[in-house]
Each structure stands twice: as structure tokens, then as C-alpha cells.
Amino acid sequence: MIGAVLAGGRSKRFGGNKLLYRIDGKPLILHTIERLESANEIEEVVIVASPENAEKLKTFGYQVLVDELLVGPIGGIYTALGLGDAFVTAGDMPRIVPEFVDYIIKYFHKSRKAVCVPRWINGHIEPLHAAYSMGFLDIIEEQLALEEYMIKRAIEKANVCYLTIEKVPFEWRESFFNVNRKDDLRKLGIPEPLV
Ligand SMILES: Nc1nc2c(ncn2[C@@H]2O[C@H](COP(=O)(O)OP(=O)(O)OP(=O)(O)O)[C@@H](O)[C@H]2O)c(=O)[nH]1
């Protein structure tokens, strides 16, 4: 399955392009990609970028799709599904657990549902760590026509398989860690930059 890494955000909370921020000498997005591509079920990783970020991201040697919609993750997922079924993540997830990715993809194939997404017992879902089929494109198109851009709403309309997060190994939760603010770098053991 394709692994699609979303990279069309504005990093407002972080300030500056967080995906290019170097951690141990390597841009954050490459940490994410390397984790994702070490999952056995991932055949190829593609980056779904904003037109603004595309040129720089192409230098990393991965296929880059340009998201022309820029309406949030739903537009990135839409662009990725143009290539085929995809496991979609955010670009700011340097702690992805490959075994968890494989588990979700296998569950997705078995279930034959349009989307397979992890869900907490409290109902909160993790749509940027989920498997999507091309069959989901129709629902996204409907939502785009309605100017409803919340991915959560689109998923609610689909035939979905939910994976209860509390039922999988506790350590896998680390997979959802993402960098939003400079302060989050501390959780990676990196001192927050002074500027
Ligand atoms: N392709 C694409 N990716 C997006 C879009 N919006 C957000 N993303 C990506 O989705 C992931 C999660 O985004 P957020 O961290 O919630 O948003 P952000 O814009 O990057 O950051 P903030 O401005 O601080 O909210 C990141 O990897 C973003 O690059 C979009 O419109 N298109």
C-alpha cells in the first residue's frame, strides 16, 4: 500500500516550517517517512505537499504530489487517493510504530471497508494514522461540494472499521505523537530552541 505523508500545513503554532526543522541533523519529515517506510505493508512513500513546499520536498527523493485544494488534511487525503489506496499520516509524526501501521493495513484489507481508523474509547479518532480506500473519494467529493472540510465528518459518512486503541499494545500509542509547537520538541529529548 502507498504511504502518504501530508505536508501542506502552515505550521502556525510551531512558527517556521516544522517539517524541515532538523532533529539530530535530519528534517522532521524524514524521521516520519523513515518510520513509515519501514512498515512491511508500505510499498512506497509519497509526500502530499502544498505548491509552496513542493520544490524543497522533492529534493528528498520521494514522489511529491501537489495538493492544489489546501483545505486541510481532507484535501491532502483526496490528492493521495488519486494514486490508489493509501495509509495516510501527518508529516510531523517522528515516532510512528511500523508494527502498528502494518496491523491497521492488514485489518483494512480484511475488513474491506472504505476507511480503517484508530479510535479511543472516548470516541476521538486518529484520522492521520489511518488506511483509506479509493472508494472514499466519492464521499470526500460530496463533502468538498458542501464546503465541509472536517475529515471527521467525512469519515462518519463512510463504511468504517474502527480499531480500539485501548485494545492494542500500550507502546503503540507513541505512534500518534506529533509536533505542533516548539515545546513538543522537549518530549523528543531535544531542548526547545531559544529563537
Ligand atoms: N496536503 C496537505 N497537508 C496538510 C494540510 N493542512 C495540514 N496538512 C498537514 O497535516 C498535518 C497536520 O497538520 P496540523 O499540524 O494540524 O496543521 P499545520 O498547518 O501543519 O500546523 P498549524 O498551522 O500549527 O495548525 C501536517 O503534516 C500538515 O503539514 C493541507 O491543506 N494539505
UniProtKB/TrEMBL annotation:
<dbReference type="InterPro" id="IPR025877">
    <property type="entry name" value="MobA-like_NTP_Trfase"/>
</dbReference>
<comment type="similarity">
    <text>Belongs to the MobA family.</text>
</comment>
<keyword id="KW-0460">Magnesium</keyword>
<keyword id="KW-0479">Metal-binding</keyword>
<dbReference type="InterPro" id="IPR013482">
    <property type="entry name" value="Molybde_CF_guanTrfase"/>
</dbReference>
<dbReference type="GO" id="GO:0006777">
    <property type="term" value="P:Mo-molybdopterin cofactor biosynthetic process"/>
</dbReference>
<dbReference type="GO" id="GO:0061603">
    <property type="term" value="F:molybdenum cofactor guanylyltransferase activity"/>
</dbReference>
<keyword id="KW-0963">Cytoplasm</keyword>
<feature type="domain" description="MobA-like NTP transferase">
    <location>
        <begin position="3"/>
        <end position="143"/>
    </location>
</feature>
<dbReference type="GO" id="GO:0046872">
    <property type="term" value="F:metal ion binding"/>
</dbReference>
<dbReference type="Pfam" id="PF12804">
    <property type="entry name" value="NTP_transf_3"/>
</dbReference>
<keyword id="KW-0501">Molybdenum cofactor biosynthesis</keyword>
<feature type="binding site">
    <location>
        <position position="92"/>
    </location>
    <ligand>
        <name>Mg(2+)</name>
    </ligand>
</feature>
<feature type="binding site">
    <location>
        <begin position="6"/>
        <end position="8"/>
    </location>
    <ligand>
        <name>GTP</name>
    </ligand>
</feature>
<feature type="binding site">
    <location>
        <position position="67"/>
    </location>
    <ligand>
        <name>GTP</name>
    </ligand>
</feature>
<keyword id="KW-0342">GTP-binding</keyword>
<keyword id="KW-0547">Nucleotide-binding</keyword>
<dbReference type="GO" id="GO:0005737">
    <property type="term" value="C:cytoplasm"/>
</dbReference>
<dbReference type="InterPro" id="IPR029044">
    <property type="entry name" value="Nucleotide-diphossugar_trans"/>
</dbReference>
<comment type="function">
    <text>Transfers a GMP moiety from GTP to Mo-molybdopterin (Mo-MPT) cofactor (Moco or molybdenum cofactor) to form Mo-molybdopterin guanine dinucleotide (Mo-MGD) cofactor.</text>
</comment>
<keyword id="KW-0808">Transferase</keyword>
<dbReference type="GO" id="GO:0005525">
    <property type="term" value="F:GTP binding"/>
</dbReference>
<protein>
    <recommendedName>
        <fullName>Probable molybdenum cofactor guanylyltransferase</fullName>
        <ecNumber>2.7.7.77</ecNumber>
    </recommendedName>
</protein>
<feature type="binding site">
    <location>
        <position position="18"/>
    </location>
    <ligand>
        <name>GTP</name>
    </ligand>
</feature>
<feature type="binding site">
    <location>
        <position position="92"/>
    </location>
    <ligand>
        <name>GTP</name>
    </ligand>
</feature>
